[in-house]
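Re-run requested by the PI after the first attempt was lost when the workstation crashed. Everything re-entered from the original request form. Ligand of interest: nicotinamide-adenine-dinucleotide.
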Amino acid sequence: MTPIFTVPVTLAERSYEITIRAGLLEKLGRELKQLGMKGKVAVVTDRQVARHYLRDVSQAITRHGLHPVPIILDPGERSKTLKTVESVLDILARDRFERSSLLLALGGGVVGDIAGFSASIYQRGMPYIQVPTTLVAQVDSSVGGKTGVDHRLGKNLIGSFYQPRAVWIDPLVLRTLPRREWVAGLAEVIKYGIIADDKFFLYLQRHMPDLLMQTPGVVATVIKRSCEIKAEVVSSDERESDRRRILNYGHTIGHALEALGGYRSMVHGEAVGTGLVQEADLACFQGLCSREVVEGIRRIVKEAGLSDQMPRWTPSKVWKAMLHDKKVSGGRVIGVWPSRIGAVRMGPLEKHVFDRWWAESQPT
Ligand SMILES: NC(=O)c1ccc[n+]([C@@H]2O[C@H](COP(=O)([O-])OP(=O)(O)OC[C@H]3O[C@@H](n4cnc5c(N)ncnc54)[C@H](O)[C@@H]3O)[C@@H](O)[C@H]2O)c1
Ligand SMILES: [Zn+2]
């Protein structure tokens, strides 16, 4: 039997718990009842996830005298728009959901971001619970309360900080996840080792074959440790004024690559995987870490099945895309640089440094 883990997210009166438990989905109704929920529950999900899990989840909810109202979205990043949020709000209003009613976000990061944002604005905020079903969502997007949608002029440009009442993680749902999405999630997991915990990094190095085979005990442990690190960082800086930015490691280049590919050629985690290696290389170039650190990161990224190589963009295109990221402040690119495995620091990146690095490091 796999263990049950709980991880606290400490945010004063907005504190909540992450529960990691194999088979949790079947027990959803009981958990809701224990929270004192009554009446209607909006279940926001996407078509793909609905195909696998909506029937079981609806039954689990109904069994405990609650009434699920499914809200099924088109899968994929293209759904992350204000228009979709409006369609969610339409159903909530039509079905006369109240401010005390509950919303469940059952799906990956796309569903979680849309559902969380909808919950944050419906009647100025209704409670919601994240039930993440991708590895990215289980270790990253469901924790921390960032919700929102894309705008045609930028990804995640519209949104709010709005914490869920709980995060319920059932690792068993990852069995149906497409291989590509699973591997993409490993990039975020590796990131946690690099930014905060060398022992965890070592654990990942040792257990990568088990992880790739989705050995249940290893998967649960990895999700737990990742959530602990994210929870710890978020608790210390809920609104990303400073420390929370360390979570952005690998994402300065990662986001640029994602954007340049039109959010189609690379999924988020794949772009982050390359970002982890290339940003370490940039740190090494600036004399901030050793070559050994870079090569250690490169090895694990490749072993996970992710690419360490920059796709064939010109440096000026990549720089421009980096400047476009909303985490840029005052027109300056602020990077997160590993000093060793388990520790990072933040610092600006000047264009001339980036250009010199590119000329020396990227194959022509
Ligand atoms: N809010 C945050 O802090 C935060 C952090 C990281 C990422 N994000 C956002 O998360 C999104 C990416 O999330 P994602 O990688 O989970 O992508 P996703 O939500 O698009 O899911 C990927 C695909 O997997 C399918 N899927 C989901 N669960 C499944 C399952 N168990 N079995 C089979 N198929 C399943 C989905 O239908 C989808 O087609 C991006 O929009 C990103 O901006 C947000
Ligand atoms: Zn990410």
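Saved to the shared folder this time. The radius of gyration is 20 Å.
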